[in-house]
């Protein structure tokens, strides 16, 4: 998994490096975006820490240049010893964009809240998840950005809280 994520990061870096004209974003207000991210995630269950594969797709709306409302669907495959587990989450995010007109990079920070489901070895459960995230959007054109995000999420599964830290790398299309 680390090799796959490293390969994706290197490819995205090369694409960004060879492009000759990056967009200078004038405004985000009123725009919508569809995004997809591949993640490398570390989960701390209290007993041990493990890495997992995860895919995230999202839809964003920007009511103001500095404000982003986002909905995400995350699907994760967790390798836990001899068993595999599937975790799915539906999250709402609110991000503050540190936006300046005529910029190529837009850093952001935000909060998230949602529901998660867990299915492993015939056991399933649902829970509440909450957390923080921060990252940056690097605009290749007015309609396309490379995204990188560090995401911290706490999922309440009785009787413990499962804490996860994710590095998300992906792209977004704006319309």
Tell me the span between the first and last alpha carbons. 32 Å
Shape, principal axes of CA atoms: globular
Number of helices: 1
What's the level 1 CATH class? Answer: Mainly Beta
Strand count: 8
| Low-confidence spans | none
* Rg, alpha carbons: 17 Å
Please identify the oligomeric state.
Answer: single chain
Helix amount: under 10%
CATH fold topology:
Porin
Average pLDDT, all residues: 82
Number of domains: 1
Task: Describe the protein.
By secondary structure, the protein is mainly beta. The protein has one helix and eight strands, in the order H-E-E-E-E-E-E-E-E. The protein has an eight-stranded antiparallel barrel with strand order 1-2-3-4-5-6-7-8. Strand 3 and strand 4 (83-97) form a beta hairpin.
